[in-house]
Amino acid sequence: MTKILITAAGSYGDIAPYTGLGARLRTAGHEVALATHDSYAALVRAAGLEFRRLPADPRTRRAATADTADTAEPGRRPSGSGGNRALMRRAAAFIKELGGGLADAAREDTGLLLLSATTAPLGHHLAEARGIPFLDLPLVPGAPTGDFAPVVSGGRSLGRWGNRAAGRLSLRIIDRLYADAARELRARLGLPPATPRTVRRRAEAAGRPVLHGFSEVLVPRPTDWRPGLDIVGNWWPWHAPDAQLPPAVEDFLAAGPPPVFLGFGSMAGGEGERLSALAAAALRRAKVRGILQSGWAGLSAGHTSANADLLTIGEVPHALLFPRMAAVVHHCGAGTAAAGVRAGVPTIPVPVTADQPFWAARLASLGVATAPIPFQELSGDHAVARLSHALTQATAAPARRDHALTAAHRLAAEDGAGEVLKAVERLAEAEHPAK
Fold this sequence. Notes:
Layout: E1 3-7, H1 12-27, E2 31-36, H2 41-46, E3 50-53, H3 58-63, H4 83-105, E4 112-115, H5 120-130, E5 134-136, H6 159-189, H7 196-205, E6 210-212, E7 229-231, H8 247-254, E8 260-262, H9 272-286, E9 290-293, E10 310-313, H10 318-321, E11 327-330, H11 334-343, E12 347-349, H12 356-366, H13 383-396, H14 398-412, H15 416-431
Parallel strand pairs: 1-2, 1-4, 2-3, 4-5, 6-7, 8-9, 8-11, 9-10, 11-12
């Protein structure tokens, strides 16, 4: 039995997959704590994991600002004005606050650190100071490759040389974001000075394993990645084995043909009224029913005229809801994109920022999604017509559903959490070999 600390920071999609992974590790006999923000304490504890607090909660920050993109997670762009310089300042402040909390979350008896992409550049210093083994477990590809451009660059390939160069530049930008936090954390931990770039390169030179929590169905392993960079498959958000959809949702599903899901997760804060009216009009024109997930945008059927073919819901496990849909419309965060593929239903991608255009393009190339509709294009005069056309394409084309079902079967054969469990047990054996 190993005492494992998982660290994850950001919005729901950055946290939830680690609850399912943690539950799998706990079932295998390990003692698991998940350090994250207060907003997700109930989710962590429901999965049977110990909750440990990390500061810099994006929901708290969002409530204190009118800037809807002020979660300040590395790699996210603001949807309004202010530009990259303002975003870099916010991201650096977020990271600096996070660093001290990470050190507080690791107890003396921690036997293994499992690090998300956001916490890994800080967690490496912690592992060095305390001699704790660690595994990096990112949800998106981050290592430079010629196969595609960095995932936060908008998805457009720059050619093999350009893609690799942009990937290296992206890492240097991340190093810069973490520089102040790393300096303070190393001083607190009694470590000699070392830049984030130096620490990162040490890990690369040592061939440290990195297990990526997404599927090769969507992103085949790049041909030029070094050994040890592996794609193992998704680990899915935890939900109770006996969980069911709320009665109101079941009643709505029983009252007519399968509806279309629409939701933007932690994106588009404050635009609920406009987006709800747009969604209702597009659904009506496409002659399909709809379920609006409120999310941070605050989508609600209450923002529209009375419509029996429209239902508003809060947090509901995508694993239970998506398979019952005719199609899903969402922002294409990594987890939501994978959930749509897992459900075997077509997707209408509406990417907002960061890695979302990358995943939207991947879904479209796989044949399981319509052409992406960039979020900013849902504000013009033709937005209703464009969304309505995409809804019709997604729900009326049998070939797209066939592609989605084929991809879902391939995804079902994977066991991402099981691969992490194997890696954890290999590390435990290396640390404490059998005598």
